[in-house]
Amino acid sequence: MKTISANEKLDVIIASVEKSGIKAAKLIENLKDLRELALKEQDPLVVKVLRLTYEFIEENKSKPFFLFHALTEPHVPRMPSTMFKGKSGLGYRGDAILQIDWAVGQILNKLEQLGLDKNTMIILSSDNGPVLDDGYADEAVTALNGHTPWGALRGGKYSAFEAGTRVPFIV
Question: How far apart are the first and last CA of the chain?
């Protein structure tokens, strides 16, 4: 199993966006800035992304804006920041979910601090149901400790059953 760095992930994302022909100059610029931050600073990647999110909110606080803050934490390889490793009791997958919760909370705190929380719509969603046994030895299956990410549904990612096709959508 090869572990890839945040820098390598960003290179792949930038190349994909550039090849797609999408008019996404600002996105590419932000991703390249993020790659430079990842190389220069020791903060966890989640903190670097939050810093860019804070800057965007600050720059646009006096007008309506749309912010898409993509969270990569539940995707493999699951590598939660050191400050979250071992905290959930559910392995790296659980620790990554704690990190997501913290990051969303930080964004909500920023909106409240700027007085934008009462006039802002927050949408949380996912692209598919849960996947646990995806070939990585990260205790996603063995460290569930009774947690059932699919709830009462059957299936999961890669499945046509409900747990694979229904996704959370919280407004």
Answer: 37
**From the CA atom positions of the chain, what is the Rg in Å?**
17
The residue-averaged pLDDT of 16-36 equals 56
The H or E element that residue 83 is part of is none
What's the whole-number average pLDDT of the chain?
A: 79
- The length of the chain in residues reads 171
* Best CA proximity match to 139, nearest among 70, 98, 101, 88: 88
pLDDT attached to residue 23: 47
Q: Is pLDDT above 90 for 36?
A: no
How far apart (Å, rounded) are the C-alpha atoms in residues 100 and 98? Answer: 5
Backbone angles phi, psi at 156, to 5 degrees: 175, -165
Rounded CA gap, 32 and 52, in Å? 12
Please list the alpha-helical segments (H only) found in 21-150. 25-40, 45-60, 91-113
